[in-house]
Amino acid sequence: MTRRSILALNAGSSSIKFALYDLVSSRDMQLVSRGTLDLGDKPTLRAKAADGTVQCDRPLTADKRRDAAIGEMLNWVQGEIGERNLICAGHRIVHGGSEFIEPVRLTPDIIDAIDKLTPLAPLHQPRSLAPVRAIAALQPDLPQVGCFDTAFHQTIDPLVRRFALPRQYEEQGLRRYGFHGLSYEYIAGRLSEISPIFAAKHTIVAHLGNGASLCALHGGKSIDTTMGFSALDGLVMGTRCGAIDPGVLLYFLLERGIAAEELQAMLYEKSGLLGVSGISGDMRTLEASNDPRAQEAMALFAFRAAREAAALANTMGGLECLVFTAG
Fold it and tell me: Domain residues for 141?
C-alpha cells in the first residue's frame, strides 16, 4: 500500500527547516526524515532519518543563491520520497496581517494577497513564499497550506497591541502583531503535555535564533511578546537591530539624508550581532572569536533579553516558568 506523506517547511531568515511525515491515521503522523538547509556563514544541507541516521550532510554547490539552494533541497527531498504519495506541503508564513488568522490553502490568489503584506515583513515574507513558489513550479497540482506566525498572538489584549499614535492609523492596520507564533503555539501544547501544572503558570518562552523574540504565556495563550508591528522589533538579533528609539531613524532620514531603502537594509541586514561585532551575525562564529567586539555583541544580546523578560513578567504579574527554544 502506497504511503501518503506530508512535507512541512519552515523558511526562516537564515535557514529552511523541513520534515517529511507519513500519515498513520487521520490524526497521527510518523516522522520519516527531517533536515535543515543552513544559509549561514557556511551554507550546508543536513538531514537525518527518524532514528537519527545521517542521510545528508554536505555543503551547497558553488551557486549560493537562495532559490538555487531551495531547488537543491527539494531535489534531495524528492529522492527520499521514493514510492510515497506526497499529498500536501505545509508552510510557515511569517505575516498574516489582520486577515489570515487560521491555516489557509495557498491558491494563486491567496499567495498574491500574502505577498502584498511584504512591506510589513520585507526580510521574511519573500523568504516564506520562496519555497511555496518553488514547489508550485515543480508540482503545480500539489496542495499547499500556509500557517501564520502572527495568528497565535490574536489573544493579546487590545491595550497591549496598541501604539500611542493617532487612532486612525490602528484602523489601517498599524498595531503590534507579534511573530514566532507557530513556535510558541507548539511550546504551549508541549508544555501542557509535559506538565499541565506548569502550563497553567505564568510562563515566558524565549525563542532565541538568528531571529529572536520572547512571549509571555498564561494558560497556553499569548499575553504579550517582544516583536510588534514588524519582525524588526524587540531583542537584538543576528542582523536586525531590535527595539530602537524612533528618533534615531528620524535622524538618519532627516539629518544624514539616508534613503529609506538604505535604512531598511541597515536595520534588517547590517545591524544586530553583525553590526555590533563587525564580524558576523552567527552566534557560533562570535562564540569562537576572541575579538572583544564579539564579546560585547553577545553581552548586549543577553542584557536586552533579560530586560525584555522582566518587562513581560511585569505584564503577566509574575514569572513561574521559563522555556528556551529555537537555535
Answer: 4-148
